Amino acid sequence: MKFPRWLRPALFIAALLALWEIAVDLHPGQILPGPVSVAGGIVDLLEHGLLLKYVVASLFRVTWGFILAAFLAIPIGLTLGWYRRGEMAFNPLVQIFRPISPLAWIPLAILWFGVGDLAAIFLIFIGCFFPLLLTAMSAVHNIPAVYINAGRNFGLSQSAFVSRVLYPAVIPQLLVGLRITLGVAWLVVVAAEMISVNSGLGFLIVDARNAGNRYDLVVAGMVIIGVIGLLLDLGMRSLEQIKSFRWRSSEG
Q1: What tens digit of pLDDT does each residue of 89-100 get?
Q2: pTM for the full predicted model
Q3: Which domain holds residue 238?
Q4: Total structural domains in the chain?
C-alpha cells in the first residue's frame, strides 16, 4: 500500500508531540508546558486578537527590510562582480562589515530611529544586505565563459547582454541566496523585536516571560515562528521550480 508523501512526516510530528506530552505529564514540576497547554496558549492569543496582530507586525518588518536589501544589494553585487576593479576596491570594506552581527547594530539603530518599526527594519536590512551582495558577486563569477562569449559573438548591445545573458545566468544562484537570506531576516526580526519594538512575535515571547511567566505563550510564540519560517522557505523553494528560472540546469 502506497502512502501519501505528507503522511510520514505528519505521523513523525504526531509521535513527537505525544512523547512531549507524556514527558511533561511524568514530570509535572517542570516549567516546560506540554503541547496541549501550548495549543491553549495559541487559542488564547486568537481570542484576544493578538496572534494576527503580532504575525502581521513581524511579516511587515521582514518584508520591508528584505526587499530594501535585495533592491540595493543585488544590483551593486552584480556590478562589483562584473567590474573586477570595483570589487577589488570595495571588497576590503565589505569583508570588514560582513562579520558584524546585525544585533550589534541594535544600540545604533535605537539611537538613529528610536524604538519602533524603523529600527527593526534597519536591523533586518543590515542582516540581509551583505549575504545578498556576496551572493550576487559570486553569481557573476560563476557565469560560464561560453555564455559570455556567445553574447559577445552575437554583437549584443550592453542592455541586451544584461537582459538576455547576465540576468538569466545569475537568477538560479540568486534564488538560492534569497531563500537563505529570507531565513536570516526571519531570525533577525525575532531578535530585534525582543529589544527594539513593542509588538511582533519576538516581543510576544519576552512579554509572556515577564508578565507572569506565561511559558505556554513563550513556547506558542516559538512554534508560530517555526511554522511561519517553514512556510516562507517553502514559498521561496517554489520559485526555484519555475522553469524559466532553471534554464541553467540543462548545462552539461
Answers
A1: 888 888 888 888
A2: 0.83
A3: 45-144+151-246
A4: 1
